[in-house]
What we know:
It is a single chain. The protein is an all-alpha fold. Among the domains are: 1-62; 201-312, Cyclin A, domain 1 (Orthogonal Bundle), CATH 1.10.472.10; 322-456, Orthogonal Bundle (Cyclin A, domain 1), CATH 1.10.472. The protein is 61% helix and 0% strand. The protein contains 22 helices and no strands. The N and C termini lie far apart (142 Å).
Amino acid sequence: MGSNNKSGNVNIVKRTSGGNMENTVSAANTGANTHTTDLKEKSRISTLKRSNTFNADNFVTPQNQQSASSNANTNANSSANLSTPMVRNRRALTEVPVNQQRQPLEKQYHQSLQHQQTGINTKIRREPSELSSLSSTRKRSIYRDEEEQEEVEESKSVKRVKSSSPRKWKDLDSDEKTDICMVTEYTDEIFEHLYKREMETLPTHNYLENLESPYHLRPSMRAILVDWLVEVHEKFQCYPETLFLTINIMDRFLAKNKVTLSKLQLLAVTSLFIAAKFEEVTLPKLSDYAYITDGAASKHDIKSAEMFMLTSLSFDIAWPNPMNFLRRISKADSYDFQTRSMGKFLLEYTMCCHKFINVKPSVMSAMSMFVARRISQRNNPIWDETFKHYSGDIDALNDQSFQNLCKELVNEIASPQTRLDSLILKFKKPKYGAIYYKVYDWCKKQVENDSLDSLFSV
């Protein structure tokens, strides 16, 4: 037995010489099994090395799980010594030349530190060259269609004309440049958009005066609706813009839809309901609108009518409110309180009167401010280039159509053809400065003296 296993059994016998023969035999068998296991593990390691997929986890077996942790360093060293022809032929990373022609990164970093220490600013601002501007303009011209190019050329020509001609009006927006709420840098663009939207949001035709229209409605019926809206509007304490938008929504809907007499009040209260959503911050409740009709319209009726009206108007509610233009012209009037109060009354009367249903909001505001300045005798001057600019280029002293509208407004206030009792009662109150009496007396005097033509004399 000792001659067959010289290396393994002799050692085991020496370690177990103090024991009996049974222990020696068992130890010999154990040594033989261990030797067989070592041979299998060595062959497994060589196979993994040849496949170049060696993993330490694959190396650990259940039999030597405990000894693997203690012999980790020994296995690592032995595995490092095992090499294949592929590994032997590899070049070390230190032998590969890196960035031979460039300056090392450390030197560049130190040079930048030297510039910072000496206080030299290494940042150089590149000015735009002519070539870069040409390339950008070429790109823009390629991706711009013909219509946009024509618009750009027209705007450039207009700017040249404006810059070449001397400005005759006073720039009042420059005094408010420090006020961020006035956004003076966008004022011209905002009002250009409002002037463009005016014609798009007017009623398609005058359904009150056109007797042949299928949507014809008597002016007296509209006056009753508008007068009731003025009363409800004051009861709800809404903004003036809400009332004006309400009338615009109602007129635009009636110009393209036939409404029975029993549904006119529902139409009016729904128009106010929509306008309040658009203009107000604190809204009345839906139940308040239903209650104010005294049973003529329920909450369900108002909601159904709202959807039907918005669909008919294509949800196009954004309307250039005449109050925006009145505030714009008041800037040229130095925001005189009395003149502006009379202008508000005249503007509201113009909106409620059926004769001015197709007049643009900017023209209504200019009419109101011009007549208000005549009543308050602010005639020095009555209308100059500054007023012309801030009213949307309305030449009050030379525009015949504008003068006819002003005369018609004065005649209507002096001898009204439609009854607007709630509107008149509203401006008789001290809350509004009882402004109606002064305006009515002046208009009555002008009509009696037949001096309407003198309104437009310098």
